[in-house]
Design goal:
Helix content is 70%, strand content 5%.
Length: 137
């Protein structure tokens, strides 16, 4: 019995689970009963990163999938950093921002890095397999 996975579908679903869904959880608390979700703080830069990633995955003649996918992850990480440093806190400074951040923000950053590793390893393996097929033919 053989199981075949479509690489692009798997990477798209994992992108959704690792990079989009974590933005729906509370990232920072602004007061005793107020928590801000990541999606509320991320600007258009996040959308640009997501669209760039989807273009890299599903464009028919995209030759630079690794570069565009890595760039998309970088853009999304920059959007995460901008939301961290622009979050208004009562006690200004880096320590105040660390106190206001929730574990879900840090988990989102870790999941983004894990997806970047998954993306690169999968794409490099697919590229090597394609080169083997070309050299064997």
């Amino acid at each position: 019995m053989s199981i075949r996975l479509d690489r692009k579908k798997m990477l798209t679903v994992s992108f959704f689970l690792c990079c989009i869904v974590p933005t729906l959880f509370p990232w920072f608390h602004a007061g005793p009963a107020q928590a801000l979700r990541g999606i509320q703080l991320l600007g258009p830069l996040f959308i640009v990163g997501a669209v760039l990633y989807l273009y890299a995955m599903f464009a028919k003649r995209c030759r630079h999938v690794l570069v565009l996918g890595g760039l998309a992850h970088g853009v999304i990480f920059v959007a995460y950093l901008i939301s961290f440093f622009q979050f208004p806190v009562v006690h200004h400074g880096f320590v105040g921002r660390l106190d206001a951040s929730q574990p879900s923000f840090w988990i989102s950053c870790i999941l983004l890095a894990a997806h970047l590793v998954l993306f690169f390893t999968t794409e490099v393996a697919a590229r090597r397999r394609l080169e083997k097929r070309r050299s064997a033919a």
